[in-house]
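Reopening this one. Same input as before:
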Amino acid sequence: MSAALPSLVKGQPPAPPHPLLQGAIVPTLLSLAVPNMVALSMAVLVAVAETYYVGQLGTVALAAMALVFPFAMLTQMMSNGAMGSGVSSVISRALGAGDGERASALALHALVIGAVAGLLYSLLFVLCGALFYGWLGGHGEVLAAATGYGSVLFSGAVLVWLCNTLASVVRGTGNMRLPSTVIFAASLVQIVLGGALGLGLGPMPRWGMPGVAVGNIVAMALAVAAFLAYLQWGQQRLRLAWRTPRLAWPMFRDILRVGALACLSPVQTALTALLLTGMVARLGPQALAGYGIGQRLEFLLIPMAFGVGMAAVPMVGMAMGAGQVARARRIAWSGGTIAAALLGALGLLVIAWPQLWSGLFTHDAAVRAHADLYLRMVGPAFGLFGLGLVLYFASLGAGHVWAPLLAGTVRLLLVAGGGAWLMGSGQGSAQSLFGLVAAAMAIYGAGTAWAVWRARWG
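Same output, byte for byte:
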């Protein structure tokens, strides 16, 4: 679903309007979302596989992974969902306005931002990871395991940032298939190599949790190489000036105006998860491991909604660039409805049969009981959560980020205030904390929908 850029050569007639500006909304949205959903289904399998591998290493390893996992997801959400969608947004709006030269310049500036942000993220979590895990309640064997795993995993954070930035550049042109294909292939590499190195399969050494992290690093490196090769030799839509780059602050500013502000949203989500992780950690290793299993499914809802949300970003962006504001809003609500139906169905499934998920990772009865309780209590809020997430993406495509940020702030304050009261009053049981999670997710979705409905685009 992409078209050639407007001609950069004087005297040639302008290219026809991009198909994203003309096609029927729901079929076009689904045609873009399906490749994303296929690729992100592999992300689900990666998460399941890695949790399974770590589960074979024992309860301590599962608890350690629960401490590291929110920070790992923050890497993905900031580089892909936030800054990445900001990149797709500015490129698609430039293309919608018929300015292909500007779109090419924005792509090069986006790569610089991704590289710098990734290096800073790697340094922060390699040097200070143990401190963060300790703040969450990790100690003893659990803290040591989390620190070793996180040090290896986050040493490759710069590759994650570059991979997601490059994928977002391509998505901004309306091409969803190439990023999905690359991510699908990288996920296969991560599953096979992470399992082989983590558990010592075949001739591979048994490196435990660090081995699982190495699988992620190698997969991201291969994906970055594939995207760079495509941009250099496989397309003509964006002409990147690698040899004589001309960097200018106005270009950085236009990307950061959306992307940097959007990064506050995953930070809010991560802080919410970290606060809850710290509270649950005080209930014991079994509760923490069970919560980690349930929370992993919650975080996987985000990539599932990404499939629809990332399809909405270039559609909304190009419509806004072309001045089609009413069409942009219809795209936003259509995508939100699709995600709400999809995640709502998943919520019903885990309410009825939570053991389908929890039983994949552990045979410890206490751990499974906590995981099943979490899924039964939080599952009813999945639909509203999906609605809010897609409307967040659509807001990025429109260049209007404040609405979902306000809803995320309310969610964070509810968890912080409600959790502090529960723990301080002695009522901080697993059931009450999991109920707080469900309430916060529902309020986020409903609040985002209300804020987007009230917001003026244009």
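So the earlier flakiness isn't reproducible anymore. For the record, The chain has a mean pLDDT of 86.
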